[in-house]
Structure formats: structure tokens, C-alpha cells
Specification:
This protein is an alpha/beta fold. It has helices at 3-7, 24-33, 48-58, 72-81, 93-101, 113-121, 137-145, 164-168, 184-188, 192-203, and strands at residues 12-16, 38-42, 63-67, 86-87, 106-107, 109-110, 126-129, 152-155, 176-178.
Length: 206
């Protein structure tokens, strides 16, 4: 399984924060039924790793990965949870070494040409561009695409339903990461139908 295959499964990768474990299964179903095939579960809550396992069991045909992989502890927690892929907001030497030793597809984060060049020199052709809006948005990605056309991005951070098509129109963007289909109030109300409808809207973005 390649990171390219995972990222090309849908135009949007939902970036999911699980606070309550009971939400993991119905949320995974709603997102998957809505057409979002790759789910990034951020390791920002105590139940996140357990949520990954539950989501993988609930939607076995989805790609369930981990986000906010920032050090050895979160990397090893991802492996133990059976993550299909891992995403980091940035990168350091420890993470690079761990990623090279692992068979799990890894999407490292970059925000500047120097970071992109460094990761490209280590063989990474697909990168997370983060924080997308704060780091210059589509204008920055267009500029990076000139001298570094061999690198393709999944921009994440501040992207909305309205701005997603502008990113997806770029030659060096394979998909975007987003949270707009994960309305906190809808999740609190357990309105999974509404979440599914938002996911469907996201899966049809062009």
C-alpha cells in the first residue's frame, strides 16, 4: 500500500479528534459512507490510539491512519494501533529514522522550500503542507511547484469547503486535509446523518 493510493482515495482527508470513544465507530461509518476513504485520527486525546483500532474494525475497507505523529512515543503508538498510514505536522531526525525503518506509509509535514527539499532528498515525494493557510496557501504551493515539481502535497490547516477547490486545482496537490465536516455540535448531538451529508459534500469537491 502506497501513500499515493491512500491520498488519492478521496479529495479530502478528514482530520479527526476523538474525545469520546463511543463516537469512534459511528463517526467512522458516517465519514466512510459519505465517501471519505482515508481517515486521519489525531493523537491529541488519551483515547485516540484505541479509536484507531475501533475504526479499523468498523470500516475495514477504509484507510485509518494517525496524525500528530511527532516523536517516538506517538510513532510507536501508531504502529501498536495498526495505523494504515501516519501523518506528522513537521519532521525531525528521529521521526525520519523511524519512518525509514517502517513499512507504514508516512506523510511528513513541510511549510518551506528548504523543508520540502530536505524531505525530497530523503525520498519523500508526497508531503503534508502545514499549516496551509497560515503558510501562504495556494500562492505558496504554486511558487514551490516551480522549482520542485517532483513533490506533491496534501495541504492541511485552515482549509474550508469553499477554499478546497482552489487547492485541488493545483498540479502539485493530490488532496486536502480538513475538519469542516466534523462539526463539534453535530458530534455532541450524535447526528451521524448530518455528518455523513457533510462528508458526501466533501467527497464530491473538485
Amino acid at each position: 500500500m502506497s501513500i499515493e493510493k491512500i491520498l488519492s482515495s478521496a479529495p479530502v482527508v478528514p482530520v479527526v479528534v476523538i474525545d469520546n470513544l463511543e463516537d469512534a465507530a459511528p463517526l467512522a461509518q458516517a465519514l466512510y459512507k459519505g465517501g471519505l476513504k482515508a481517515l486521519e485520527i489525531t493523537l491529541r486525546t488519551p483515547v485516540a490510539a484505541q479509536a484507531v483500532k475501533i475504526m479499523k474494525e468498523t470500516v475495514p475497507d477504509a484507510y485509518v491512519g494517525t496524525g500528530t505523529v511527532v516523536d517516538r512515543a506517538t510513532f510507536e503508538a501508531s504502529v501498536a494501533a495498526g495505523a494504515d498510514f501516519m501523518v506528522s505536522p513537521g519532521v525531525n531526525d528521529e521521526l525520519l529514522a523511524l519512518a525509514k525503518e517502517s513499512d507504514i506509509p508516512f506523510l511528513p509535514g513541510a511549510a518551506t522550500p528548504s523543508e520540502v527539499m530536505n524531505l525530497a532528498s530523503h525520498g519523500f515525494k508526497f508531503l503534508k503542507f502545514f499549516p496551509a493557510e497560515a503558510a501562504g496557501g495556494t500562492a505558496m504551493l504554486k511558487s514551490i511547484g516551480g522549482p520542485l515539481p517532483q513533490v506533491t502535497f496534501c495541504p492541511t490547516g485552515g482549509i474550508t469547503l469553499e477554499s478546497a477547490p482552489k487547492y485541488l486545482a493545483l498540479n502539485n496537490v493530490i488532496c486536502v486535509g480538513g475538519t469542516w465536516m466534523l462539526d463539534k455540535q453535530l458530534i455532541a448531538n450524535k447526528d451521524w446523518q448530518a455528518i455523513e451529508a457533510l462528508a458526501k459534500q466533501a467527497s464530491e469537491v473538485k
